[in-house]
Write a structure and sequence with these properties.
The complex is a heterodimer of chains A (about 140) and B (about 325). Chain A has helices spanning about 20-30, 45-55, 70-80, 100-105, 120-130, 130-135, and strands spanning about 10, 35-40, 60-65, 90-95, 110-115. Chain A is an alpha/beta fold and about 140 residues long. Chain A has a five-stranded parallel β-sheet, with helices on both faces. The chains are: A alpha/beta (about 140), B alpha/beta (about 325). The structure holds guanosine-5'-diphosphate (GDP) and magnesium ion.
Chain lengths: ~140, ~325
């Protein structure tokens, strides 16, 4: 049985970030690991991602970031918290500088995967930390 | 039917349009949670007020873009809309990339619109059963329109569309050979035909061919009160979509004024739905982990000491005797 079975993941860009290639690759990698990926694409606002997370009842949110839109990521985390969705972890990938990664984690982003992270790391992390995974093992 | 307190509260929450409850219940449906049956029974009895429209057609035909434009028209007309968008799971990993929501992004923050993606999961029976259950949930909520989008290839997908009251079949402009292929299978299920990507040079010709095909087949149609219209659309610009919404409305109105046809179709949907539920029950039994007994009998069929006919009969017998 594949690792991601039954785990739902949003993969999205945020704000005015038109770099979709990274997100598309991650979406496919996750699909091949058995996850169900809801792919939102580019130009998503934090509000749109929040609504998608609620309606799709996802277990984790992955943001692919190739522009300096870190404040929007922080705002998304805040929105989730305000809307009772704090148990859905937000993870990020892309070209996020190390000091920004630390700052994001300080503001409630669950994990930041630096460029070149092996996909097995990402898959493993989601399997262990996704809301659904925790719900099932509880 | 007695509805327990917990189920009653959920029926009430859904009836008042609670989106979070809806999202959570559909997740339980997706997981195949057996504990949800009593709730689904209550919801089915409480529901049935939405208009359920199926949108189907080949991958990439523009179904999701078209649904997004339809939502726009319906919202302008003051209607609330829910969408269940089913995409196939990968047969290799069981995972899926669900991309329908991407095309409907403009409605993300409209609280009168609910969009839910669903992977087909490729289990025997499981997929269409889950989609049918999800539609039961949505149909027990105050949505005026409920849309189910599926890819019109493969048995599972065709089965899902049979839950809809009115079916829109989306085609793209195509060459003669494709038209022949279309003629062979899909002819029976469409109430309305759409030729999307109307900007394509072949679009008018495809519309004409479809109209000819429908006229030719009309004498075989058990429903003589309705000749399926063919509408040319351009779903990126929204062209033709008002007309499509009008035709959908017309078809519902036509069914209302033809109660015999409507009731024949409704009875057919119940038969289909019931068969799906039975198949799911049998399938669970055939694969159940607690069914040590089933495994032994299956082994004896493998060894040809028994046979699948005997197994089928005994399975049905144990299922009906077990209350
Ligand atoms: N040229 C043209 N392209 C379209 C039209 N409608 C949709 N598309 C494109 O067709 C592709 C598939 O659209 P989508 O709605 O996802 O199709 P689905 O797979 O049937 O749901 C997208 O790239 C759309 O932009 C149209 O009317 N004209
Ligand atoms: Mg689609």
């Amino acid at each position: 049985m594949l690792k991601g079975k039954g785990i739902k993941v949003i993969v999205s860009m945020i704000g005015l970030d038109g770099h979709t290639t990274g997100g598309e690759i991650v979406a496919r990698v996750l699909r091949d690991a058995g996850f169900e990926v809801i792919y939102l694409g580019a130009t998503q606002t934090p509000e749109m991602i929040l609504q998608a997370a609620i309606q799709e009842d996802v277990d984790v949110i992955g943001i692919s970031s190739h522009a300096s839109n870190y404040l929007q990521i922080e705002y998304l985390v805040e929105l989730l918290r305000k809307n009772g969705m704090a148990d859905v972890p937000v993870i990020c990938g892309g070209n996020i500088p190390k000091h920004v990664a630390n700052q994001l984690k300080g503001r409630g982003v669950a994990e930041v995967f630096p460029p070149g992270s092996p996909s097995s790391d990402i898959v493993g992390y989601i399997v262990e930390n996704a809301r659904g995974a925790r719900r099932r093992s509880a | 039917m007695d509805v327990n307190g917990e189920d009653g509260a959920v029926v009430g929450a859904l009836g008042s349009g609670d989106i979070r409850t809806c999202a959570r219940i559909i997740s339980r449906v997706e997981r195949g949670d057996p504990g949800i049956v009593s709730l689904l029974r209550a919801l089915y009895r409480a529901g049935g007020c939405s208009r359920v429209v199926g949108v189907t057609g080949p991958p990439g035909a523009g179904k999701s873009s078209l649904v997004s434009q339809l939502i726009r028209v319906w919202r302008k007309r003051g209607l609330n809309v829910a969408v269940l968008a089913v995409d196939p799971s990968s047969p290799f990993s069981g995972g899926a990339v669900l991309g329908d929501r991407l095309r409907m992004a403009e409605h993300s923050c409209d609280d009168r619109v609910f969009i839910r993606s669903m992977a087909s999961r490729g289990q025997l029976g499981g997929l269409t059963k889950a989609a049918g259950d999800a539609l039961t949930v949505l149909d027990a909520m105050p949505w005026d329109m409920v849309v189910v989008e599926t890819v019109g290839v493969g048995q599972n997908e065709t089965d899902i569309i049979r839950h809809a009251e009115v079916v829109v079949l989306v085609q793209t402009p195509m060459g003669g050979d494709d038209i022949q292929a279309a003629k062979a299978g899909i002819n029976e299920i469409g109430d309305i035909y759409v030729v999307n990507k109307g900007d394509h040079p072949e679009a008018n010709r495809t519309c004409r061919q479809l109209r000819d095909m429908i006229t030719l087949g009309q004498h075989l149609n058990p429903d003589s009160s309705w000749t399926p219209p063919v509408i040319k659309t351009q779903s990126l610009l929204g062209e033709g979509v008002e007309e499509l919404a009008d035709q959908i409305e017309c078809r519902f109105e036509n069914l209302r004024t033809n109660p015999e046809v409507a009731s024949r179709r409704a009875r057919e949907r119940v038969r289909h739905r019931t068969a799906e539920i039975i198949r799911d029950m049998l399938d669970r039994r055939l694969r159940s982990e607690d069914g040590q007994l089933v495994e032994t009998v299956i082994d004896s069929v493998v060894a040809r000491e028994s046979d699948p006919y005997a197994l089928a009969e005994s399975l049905l017998a144990t299922m009906t005797s077990r209350v």
